[in-house]
């Protein structure tokens, strides 16, 4: 059976990842692709159980290693229960955040050691590297403004949103550094543009990648 395609969306807060993922999913489904939409932390029952612990800040007092291991535990379950089976059956998996978020949030701004992070990542993904990663890049001031505007008035910022602007700026730089180091996997998209323009850029990038790397599946399902 043809192997599917695994696409991750990354970036800071308020970059518009979920809007873009939904729009891309509709376009792919219109072309009869089998699409699986998922997110992290979460995406499988086991990982969703850990999500609240992470986003509420309940694990924060136990330190960044603890948080990194919890993200990894959630990711491992998500990979084995959802992502790998879907990609194996030939689906296109669209995932809102994945390993680059851990590299950036826990590794860089959590100040964790590179060897520790690399070992944890290896165990968590067990070879399931994304085929394509779209990094939605936005000035954190604008991203945080958008994230605040879309939040329900009763909800406060989550554990990671509430950090200082300087930390969000370091995260932006860290995502751009990953993209520069892995240009064959990562594409940086200017997310400050109008959402319709961002959608066009994302769509073009994804369809180009699929045409290059997934001709068999497309033919099979056309
Ligand atoms: P979420 O509310 O899902 O939203 P968004 O992707 O729209 O920001 O929040 C996920 C938060 O968890 C986000 O602040 C980034 C953080 N995170 C990590 O710190 N490490 C990780 O490995 C992942 C997947 C997320």
How would you portray this structure in words?
The chain is α/β, with parallel strands linked by helices. The protein has one domain: P-loop containing nucleotide triphosphate hydrolases (Rossmann fold, 3-Layer(aba) Sandwich). The protein contains 9 helices and 5 strands. The chain has helices spanning 17-30, 45-55, 64-88, 99-108, 114-125, 140-150, 165-181, 195-213, 215-221; strands at residues 5-11, 35-39, 92-96, 132-137, 186-190. α2 runs antiparallel to α3. It starts with a strand and ends with a helix. The chain binds thymidine-5'-diphosphate. Thymidine-5'-diphosphate is lined by residues 13, 17, 40-41, 55, 71, 96-97, 101-102, 105-106, 158, 160-161.
Quick recap:
The chain is an alpha/beta fold and 222 residues long.
Rg on CA atoms, Å: 17 Å
Please state the average pLDDT score.
Answer: 94
Q: How many domain regions? A: 1
Q: Which molecules are bound besides the chains?
A: thymidine-5'-diphosphate
N to C succession of SSEs: EHEHHEHHEHHEHH
Q: Which residues form runs of ≥5 with pLDDT under 50?
A: none
| Order of adjacent strands in the largest pleated sheet | 2-3-1-4-5
Within CATH, the superfamily carries the name: P-loop containing nucleotide triphosphate hydrolases
- The strand count comes to 5
Strand count, sense and barrel status of the largest sheet are: 5 strands, parallel
Counted by DSSP, the helix tally is 9
End-to-end C-alpha gap: 16 Å
């Amino acid at each position: 059976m043809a192997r599917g395609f695994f696409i991750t969306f990354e970036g800071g807060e308020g970059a518009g990842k979920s809007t873009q993922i939904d729009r891309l999913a509709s376009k792919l489904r219109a072309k009869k692709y089998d699409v699986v939409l998922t997110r992290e932390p979460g995406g499988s029952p086991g990982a969703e159980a850990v999500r609240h612990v992470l986003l509420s800040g309940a694990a924060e007092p136990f330190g960044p290693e603890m948080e990194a291991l919890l993200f990894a535990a959630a990711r491992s379950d998500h990979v084995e229960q959802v992502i790998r089976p879907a990609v194996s059956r030939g689906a296109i998996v669209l995932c809102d955040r994945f390993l680059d978020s851990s590299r950036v949030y826990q590794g860089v701004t959590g100040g964790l050691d590179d060897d520790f992070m690399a070992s944890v990542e290896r165990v968590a993904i067990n070879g399931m590297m994304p085929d394509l990663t779209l990094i939605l890049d936005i000035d954190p001031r604008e991203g945080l403004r958008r994230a605040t505007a879309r939040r329900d008035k009763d909800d406060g910022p989550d554990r990671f949103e509430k950090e200082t602007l300087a930390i969000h700026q370091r995260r932006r730089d860290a995502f751009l550094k990953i993209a520069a180091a892995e240009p064959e996997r990562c594409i940086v998209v200017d997310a400050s543009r109008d959402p319709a323009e961002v959608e066009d850029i994302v769509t073009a990038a994804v369809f180009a990648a699929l045409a290059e790397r997934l001709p068999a599946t497309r033919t099979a399902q056309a």
